[in-house]
Design a protein that fits this description.
By secondary structure, the protein is α+β, with helices and mostly antiparallel strands. It is built from 13 helices and 23 strands. The protein is elongated. Pfam families: Methylase_S (PF01420).
């Protein structure tokens, strides 16, 4: 066999039933290649034709079917737009024409035309394959829905910035050369599992593959369920920690009111005039906390809450001062992949948004809204973009505040308070007013220690799930290889 067959995950083929169909078809064509001469798709083709280039219209002389009109192997002709086409003989569709997407994310996906309306043509991002007398439509359809086909398509697309195939490439696709009678009889027998001695081994192979595939998917579903439970467990630990239920209170710790006074005094030393935040109303308090805890607004316990900016002209350098954007900020810590740098001069101009060790960085816009990193202790200096907010507490455990921000109640505040059309954003004034439960410093340390232990256990469970998932994925990859063993 000259084709390197592979199991290829495809974004537009996701249902277990459809994937299994692709695998079954691969089993058949692998068998046929072992018993018959190899040929190219061109042997079965009368013509190929690129689609008609035209704008979609609300009315016109012809229906214009596009890639986007083909969904789940079907076309709702009532929703297909119109165009005006003067050369309709070249582009008209008829029964058993095959349309193949030649570009984009669905490159290679095919559609068999059945009972098209009068004057239906096809758009330019499609290629029409018209079969000759050597081809049975069901035989070719099975080929186009097998990993024998997809393995070759992926190879053709590799190395291209924009995935695409052309008519000449499609003509070279390899498949078995069978006469029309054999095509018709073997497809019918295989699809209906009719009793043919030469196919008995295939039926056994298909049955064993189906069992492996179903077992693999059942395990995958169980892993997804475990993953969801683990996420809930992490959130539960954080919720209990914020309510004072994770560790015991100790009278020797004192009262958090004293801590608030120390914070207030420390902030007064800076001489910086701050906006007075409104007093906390009873209806704002989300849950009860221990008697020696207090509620405070985030702005009351921080010396800085504010986002950065983007250097003019995206003036980045290859080395220099680390410049953190939202894609660098994760709950587990800062990610330096795709990190940008700015010069000392630009950093000096942005001195108001300098990042120091133990700062907390919070994403305040976009799809990563709410993601939050604690800057490591050995960090020197950096800066941030306008999509990232620096939170710098005073006389307070940075590690505890980081956990507060990650907790369900605080994340809920973030998402309820975003503003802006299209691209969500969290205003500084809203963030300053968010409530924070404050235990005495010794208890903050105990909570962080306990949470770290529990999250480490969750990490171990997460790794176990991931290891099992990878093993399961390998099993799925083996399914197609198992299909080929019959012919070796």
């Amino acid at each position: 066999m000259s084709v390197d067959l592979k199991f290829i995950p495809l974004t537009f083929i996701t249902s277990n039933e459809e994937i299994l169909k692709q695998i079954k078809n691969t089993v058949l064509f692998s068998y046929l290649l072992s018993k018959n001469e190899e040929t190219s798709l061109n042997y079965y083709l009368e013509t190929t034709q690129y689609g008609f280039t035209a704008s979609a219209l609300g009315s016109g002389s012809h229906k214009l079917v596009r890639i986007t009109d083909i969904n789940n192997g079907k076309v709702d002709w009532n929703t297909v737009p119109f165009c005006n086409c003067s050369d309709d003989n070249k582009y008209l569709l008829r029964d058993h024409d095959i349309l193949v997407a030649r570009t984009g994310g669905t490159t290679g996906k095919s559609f068999i035309v059945n009972s098209p309306p009068k004057n239906a043509v096809f758009a330019s991002y499609l290629i029409r394959l018209r079969l000759n007398k050597n081809a049975n439509i069901d035989f070719i359809t099975c080929f186009l829905n097998s990993y024998l086909f997809w393995s070759q398509i992926i190879e053709m697309k590799s190395g291209s910035a924009m995935p695409n195939v052309n008519a000449e490439k499609l003509k070279t696709l390899k498949l078995p050369k069978c006469d029309i009678k054999t095509q018709r009889e073997i497809i019918l027998a295989f699809q209906n599992e009719q009793n043919r001695n030469e196919l008995s081994g295939l039926y056994q192979k298909v049955n064993s593959i189906e069992i492996l595939f179903k077992d693999s998917n059942e395990l995958s579903s169980n892993l997804n369920y475990q993953q969801d439970l683990l996420i809930q467990l992490r959130q539960s630990f954080l919720s209990e920690a914020m309510q004072g239920k994770l560790v015991k209170q100790d009278p020797k710790d004192g009262h958090a009111k004293d801590l608030l006074q120390k914070i207030k005094a420390e902030k007064a030393k800076s001489g910086k005039k701050e906006r007075e935040l409104p007093p906390i109303k009873p209806e704002e308090i989300p849950f009860e906390i221990p008697g020696n805890w207090v509620w405070a607004r985030l702005g009351d316990i921080c010396s800085k809450i504010g986002s950065g900016s983007t250097p003019k002209g995206s003036n980045y350098t290859k080395t220099g001062i680390p410049f953190f954007r939202s894609q660098n900020v994760y709950d587990e810590g800062l990610i330096y992949e795709d990190i940008k740098y700015i010069s000392d001069e630009v950093h000096s101009q942005m001195s108001g948004t300098t990042v120091f060790s133990n700062d907390i960085l919070l994403n305040i816009t976009g799809g990563s809204l709410g993601r939050c990193s604690l800057v490591q202790e050995d960090f020197k200096e950096g800066n941030v973009s306008q999509h990232v907010c620096i939170i710098r507490p005073v006389q307070f455990s940075n590690r505890f505040l980081h956990k507060v921000i990650l907790s369900p109640f605080f994340q809920k505040l973030i998402f309820k308070s975003t503003t802006g059309a299209g691209r969500e954003g969290l205003p500084k004034y809203n963030l300053e007013q968010f409530l924070v439960p404050i235990p005495p410093i010794p208890e903050q340390s105990r909570i962080v220690k306990k949470l770290t232990e529990l999250m480490n256990l969750c990490d171990d469970l997460q790794q176990s799930i991931q290891d099992t998932r990878e093993q399961n994925d390998l099993l799925l990859q083996q399914v197609l290889k198992e299909a080929l063993m019959l012919n070796k």
